């Protein structure tokens, strides 16, 4: 019985040791029995006491809250140190407790409360009630934060992004919380908006393509093309950041929560009155707003712009850039050529407000008028002469000289030479003016042979004797009579029987106005005279000799 009692007592004693003696490395409950020298003395049971710095009972930035008699949980690092005291830590107990709590929150995807208390490279440190987490700079707010001072020490919710207990790493985000609340707020605001509704908003940001307007927790995009009916080159022309504007909700995308806004939709569309205000062929003043390679845009009124195509800019400047004819902001007179209401396009003309220079030239310079101008260009087919009205006239090779071939005559002309010419033709439709330099002194050939026809008998002067015939002159026009045309009789076809200065009657065999030559023949005159004599005085068959007939004809002529 005694042995049994001893065994029972030993078992109970061992059990009490196991129950009362806490295990090192675990969290145990204790009671504050005294506070001295900035430390709390805590009884953790089994006659074990330990000391904990008071600051371990304080949250970052706060005073410690601890009093004698308080029950607290501490971490037992060692049962006894050199002084016979337990080595305990409130901070490590809080950390263990915090990790258990945080792991559960992470598993349940729940928010945790914490306070930012320090700045480190790349971000901040956050106290999550005993565990320290890292808050990356990009996760502080939805937009970059320049000054995080107001956020320090402030208890607020965070989302755990990643945690590793073994390594002691926790990464949290404040931005995820804000985005979630923004999304809720956004959904609520969007739910209260309808397309076509007019609302007030504040301009938050301006870009090249538009402006972002805050509608009370949700941003909408006001595109530059929807700001005004007129052309807006940059949004800052009409908007300022922080300005309150009235806008219309044009479109709401329920999936992406994107809102498109417009300002011009709240104003009267000037295009509704364009047809009545700008009839076809009417002339109006406008301002050049933009210049491109293909023309210039002219504003007739705010919101109504028309295009002057490069082909409608000048009568004379055909292949030049529009910027050489007009400049931005210049006021110009334009004519309405076409209106397309559906496409909101107006075609304008600049040259139509000025008279066609070819029409003006045709009125002021009828055919035969003498003109003077500078040689602008020399080509293989003639000269281009600059004329009044900034237009050119052309002298064809064939109109350069009466006496020389065109290819030879053009050699004596050079660029920038000032020359006189006569207007020979003006074609307004084809914008072409034909000039003649050789016609300046009149047409000497036409004047000389005006009454001369083929078959006429004329008197010419012999000017030169050559082996092949004789050169003669009629009214200043030179011609050549070949040896075979010098006489009806072959024996008399000798050039040497003529002398320079002789006057000879000849028959005109040809009048060539192109080569400007008379075809002349003594032989043809003699044959014609013989024929006429035979017809008048009898036939050669009647027995009378030719000599008798010609003698009689000559005698009659003498009488």
UniProtKB/TrEMBL annotation:
Matches recorded under Gene3D superfamilies: Nucleic acid-binding proteins
Chain ranges of the S1 motif domain: 25-91, 109-175, 196-264, 281-351, 368-438, 455-523
Superkingdom in the source lineage: Bacteria
Keyword list, A-Z: Repeat, Ribonucleoprotein, Ribosomal protein, RNA-binding
SUPFAM superfamilies: Nucleic acid-binding proteins
Transmembrane segments: none
GO cellular component: ribosome
Family (UniProt): Belongs to the bacterial ribosomal protein bS1 family.
Role this protein plays: Binds mRNA; thus facilitating recognition of the initiation point. It is needed to translate mRNA with a short Shine-Dalgarno (SD) purine-rich sequence.
The protein's name in its UniProt record: 30S ribosomal protein S1
Annotated organism of origin: Ruegeria spongiae
Gene from which the chain derives: rpsA
